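Quick start: read one record
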Amino acid sequence: YFLPLTPSLCVAAGFTYTFLIERIPEGARFRAVRSVIFALILGPLLFPQASDVGKMLNLTVLGQQPPVPPWKMVASYLNSIRGPSDTLLIWNYLPGIYLTTEMKSASRQLFVLHFLDYPEAYEGFGEEILRNVKRAPPRFIVAPREEADFRTIGDSIHRDKFVEILKNRYLVVFTADRLNVYEHRGSGHAVSR
């Protein structure tokens, strides 16, 4: 998106620089003022490009790989063990997992956390999500690793019920950073790791 704008920004910066330099009277401070204007106009264009060059050198010359985000590790793991009809529920807002795995959500709400953060959504969405998880439990739930990360603004009732369901009906089968993948005990596949 920004790549086509780069030449336009460079030309505009060049014209701006030339226009401002022409207005400055010759004198002892001419060189210093010209240097400051050069830095203020072209600096913001040059620094990001130099940063991109540094990143490219790290990838190509040094062979360093960028770190893999935890959600991608979770999605990769789920792709390696999931079946065609398996369902998924995610606590945090991590849409990349659904997109990468192409798994269906166990509820019409794709993510639990952001609905429970709004007092207006406590009643309807919290109850609906819990009802769906109890009625047709998803094979996998992706949720925070630490119980303290199951934070909501004020709806601890729904959060506590959700954590209780995880503890009683699911096993942790994979961990990536601060995310756990829980598998339903009744799926016949769950093996704690």
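Strands lie at 87-90, 104-105, 140-144, 170-176, 179-184.
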